[in-house]
Design goal:
- With 160 residues, this protein is mainly alpha-helical.
- It is 56% helix and 9% strand.
- The chain contains six helices and two strands, in the order αααααββα.
- Helix 4 packs antiparallel against helix 6.
- It is elongated.
- 11% of the residues are buried.
Length: 160
């Protein structure tokens, strides 16, 4: 499943408690759970469809913003957001911490780190055009991007 859709589904579940304390009786039919119907088809009082539109609009606006600013500023914003959310909600980083533990466990053949990124160097700055880190821990992502940024800037400054 595409990451944005997976995150949308998780956000709807967290907000509406579809599978939790207020479990919805229409989960088998709803597109945010197991079915393909819009939320209003299942329960006309459910506003998960509207919530999802806001989530997707916010997601796209955030990525557009991060893509338009220099790489180091984007990484600072992401890091600050994660740090701020950890202090407000100590359980919010549990999934990320579990992923970090998985990443540092050695495997006989070594760790494979996939970084699908398109970056652009212009006017002395490195810009992220596209980035998919497949749930890579934020600290590792930040360090890799920072190292790439420094290397690219040094390389092009040396060519001038």
């Amino acid at each position: 499943m595409y990451k944005k859709e997976e995150m949308l589904r998780e956000a709807v579940h967290d907000h509406y408690q579809c599978n939790g304390k207020y479990a919805c009786e229409e989960r088998a039919y709803c597109r945010f759970c197991e079915g393909e119907n819009i939320a209003h088809d299942c329960d006309e009082d459910c506003f998960a469809d509207e919530f999802s539109e806001g989530f997707l609009y916010g997601w796209d606006a955030c990525l557009k913003h991060l893509g338009e600013i220099p790489c180091n500023e984007a990484m600072d914003e992401i890091t600050n957001h994660i740090t701020d959310n950890r202090s407000e909600n100590p359980n919010s980083s549990k999934k990320e911490e579990d992923n970090e533990k998985k990443m540092v466990q050695p495997i006989d053949e070594g760790e494979i780190i996939e970084l699908d990124t398109i970056i652009e160097y212009r006017n002395g700055q490195v810009y992220i055009k596209k980035m998919n880190t497949n749930e890579m821990p934020a600290t590792l992502t930040f360090n890799l991007i920072e190292a790439l940024n420094n290397t690219i800037v040094e390389y092009y400054k040396g060519k001038q």
